[in-house]
Amino acid sequence: MKKVLVLEDEASIRSFVVINLRRSGYEPIEAGTGAEALEQLRRNPDIKVALLDIMLPDIDGFEVCRQIRASDTKIGIIMLTARTQEMDKVTGLMTGADDYVTKPFSPTELTARIDALYRRVGGDEPVDAFEMTQGPFVLNTRNRTLEKNGERIKLTQLEYAIMKMFMDNPGRALSREDILNAVWGRDYFGELKIVDVNIRRLRIKIEDDSTNPTYITTVWGYGYKWGI
Ligand code: CA
């Protein structure tokens, strides 16, 4: 689980943030004071992003940030600032923080910032990994489904695996051997022709005109290429 520390003393704001983080697939770890936040970080060394409110009942958010940074250079830190706080002061004190979000913020904005930071600090898995969008196609790697222009296209598991490989390598010519090894496994003793058979079926399902394919093109004598 992708843990995010939420340090915010106002319970209503904290629960608003927590609910939205859960909805986006994060596991929020809550703290209401600076001391609690530092304690939670000690207990959860796998927290990769921290949201720090500035005005707190004990030590302020900048001090929390400074103390975190003293021992951890990798964690991503986002400060939650109030609009009334002078931005000069905020940015001056921001040494050590990676980003800031001004209150009141929308859940979408906050999640987008966390997603971006999570990617930069290298979470266990890319946050956006479960949905890949290319042209009219959306591949959902969690449900293993494909949509074209919002319509579900039914794929076999092998066809899905081929699509995933294509979408992971846009514009790159993939040899039939590469596809066979990646999708069927290196210990598969079948013929390369099985790749062509599956590509032909896949084209019928995803191309506008399978006799004149534009997404999966043939690289003669080599293999196939995915392009949007
Ligand atoms: Ca506060």
Description of the molecule:
This protein is of the alpha/beta class. It has eight helices and twelve strands. The strands form three sheets. The protein has a five-stranded parallel β-sheet with strand order 2-1-3-4-5, sandwiched between helices. A four-stranded antiparallel β-sheet has the order 6-7-8-9, covered by helices on one side. A hairpin with a 2-residue loop joins β8 and β9. α2 packs parallel to α3 (61-71) and α6 packs across α7. Residues 9-10, 53, 55-56 line the site of calcium ion.
Give the structure's gist in a few sentences.
The chain is an alpha/beta fold. Helix content is 40%, strand content 24%.
Secondary-structure map:
Layout: E1 2-7, H1 11-23, E2 26-31, H2 34-43, E3 49-53, H3 61-71, E4 76-82, H4 87-93, E5 99-103, H5 107-121, E6 131-134, E7 137-140, E8 145-148, E9 151-153, H6 157-168, E10 173-175, H7 176-184, H8 193-206, E11 216-219, E12 223-226
Parallel strand pairs: 1-2, 1-3, 3-4, 4-5
Antiparallel strand pairs: 6-7, 7-8, 8-9, 10-12, 11-12
Bound molecules: calcium ion.
Task: Give the tally of structural domains.
Answer: 2
- Which spans of ≥5 residues are poorly predicted at pLDDT below 50? none
Strand order of the largest sheet: 2-1-3-4-5
Helix and strand run = EHEHEHEHEHEEEEHEHHEE
Average pLDDT over all residues? 87
Portion in strands: 15-25%
Give the overall form: elongated
Main beta sheet:
5 strands, parallel
Q: What helical percentage do the residues reach?
A: 25-40%
**Could you say which small molecules are bound to this protein?**
calcium ion
Instruction: Tell me the number of strands.
Output: 12
CATH topology of the largest domain: Rossmann fold
Q: How many H/I helices?
A: 8
Name of the CATH first level of the largest domain = Alpha Beta
